[in-house]
Amino acid sequence: MGADLxxxxxxxxxxxxxxxxxxxxxxxxxxxxxxxxxxxxxxxxLGAYALLVVQGLGGSFWLALVLGPLAVGLVGWxxxxxxxxxxxxRVLDSILATWxxxxxxxxxxxxxxxxxxxxxxxxxxxxLDIMGQPFPAYRLFIMxxxxxxxxxxxxxxxxxxxxxxxxxxxxxxxxxxxMGIDSRGLDRLTFAFGxxxxxxxxxVMAPLLSVDPQMGLGFLIPAFLAILTGGAGELMGVVTGxxxxxxxxxxxxxxxxxxxxxxxxxxxxxxxxRLLPNGLVGHFRQRR
Amino acid sequence: xxxxxxxRGLVAGYGGAxxxxxxxxxxxxxxxxCLLGRNGTGKTTTLKxxxxxxxxxxxxxxxxxxxxxxxxxxRIARAGIGWVPQGRSIFAGFSVEENLVIGGLGHGxxxxxxxxxxxxxxxxxxxxxxxxxxxxxxxxxAIARALAGRPRLLxxxxxxxxxQPSLVDRLAETLAxxxxxxxxxxxxxxxxxxxxxxxxxxxxxxxxxxxxxxxxAAGLADALPALEARLSx
Lengths: 288, 233
What we know:
The structure holds 2 protein chains of 2 kinds. In chain A, β1 and β2 (133-136) form a beta hairpin. Chain A is globular and about 60 Å long. Chain A has helices at residues 2-33, 40-56, 61-82, 91-113, 137-159, 161-171, 173-178, 183-205, 215-230, 235-255, 258-275, 279-287, and strands spanning 127-130, 133-136. Chain A is mainly α. Chain A has a single domain, classed as ABC transporter involved in vitamin B12 uptake, BtuC. Chain B is 37% helix and 27% strand. Chain B has a 6-stranded mixed sheet, with helices on both faces. A 4-stranded antiparallel sheet of chain B has the order 2-1-4-5, with helices on one face. The longest helix of chain B has 18 residues, at 165-182. Chain B is globular.
């Protein structure tokens, strides 16, 4: 019983951290620029294919872990300059345009790599013994990466001058500009950073998933749910939402079934969003 | 001596509406120029166009000889123009200190202690959320925040608005000190005629998007009736 509980919690923590890892880039882009990036899942996909390409050329996972996020960040930079910058302040248009981008990227991937799913290798295939049960060490690695990303984002936005400039721009764009802050430059940087995070998530998650052109969708929905329940617009929201959505889904799936778990999570998300439109963190922050 | 700020034929507006119709003005280093006028004559629009927050469709804006018209606001700020907006636009939810750091961010300037010495109230409350400050303290913060970027020229839009009358004199002293001690040029939009006359070494009156009347310091006393006539509703 003890071992079961520990494994259940470990699974839940793993799922929670994976969702937060995927949702973080989405959140940064939404929080900074109020752009709901429907192509985030496809940027995640590009990260996974970057790993495929690097491994195909004989490179190591670790090389892909560096190159993947950089390449996808560059794609994000180009998307911002070519498309996204025309969409600020137009929420519906931004959803449609980024959805269009998502189709474009997915079809490009199909043309290039074919529709079939591929397998990429994890950098190590170690199993740890956790209270008598085997647990893949790679999952612990993903959890560590996610924790590092979370801490890095908090540090970046709350402890650096760049983060302060970014938060000032979110708070009052015109005044920030008049203080000498290059808000356009920050837009490009933020979108590229969000895309790079998606790419990082793609590289790191790929060995656990089958790499195919549809893989972006599976994690995007829980990532969106996490942001909405936690409260869009701040880092603490995505962390809280990830814990609520990922934790309940993983734990309910274990005691009931995955289908029931999806129902429970969607129901829970609808309830939270209906009762607390600003999300959990947003709600309690306002009351303070 | 060439002026620090020289504006010639500045035209700007919102959409199709032409609010500024060829504004000419100048501010000297260490000088205080005060822009007066009735509501809706284009005073705030002039400041916004100078700051680049509203695109100038024609005309020239030169700061120390450098042409600024057409540049984005952050480049204009970095060229040396500090912004003290109407209503102060303090960053709420940020500490006093963070507000001051933000003022220097785009200029690569670190927060220096001299600034806090000049505004002891801000030094006392540096860790406090800026939105908890009183109106007068927020105004000091807005001015200090602009100074943190080490500007050559400050644009101030109604700095005495919403401030207790007892504090207006103190604020005027602060502004005079900034001009005289640091040699910073001040362009000030003001409704408070007494403050303007006490502080400025040049008074401009705006009417329908143009500067229609200029009085230099020496002539202020004689020009008072004419000024009052132009500003009365």
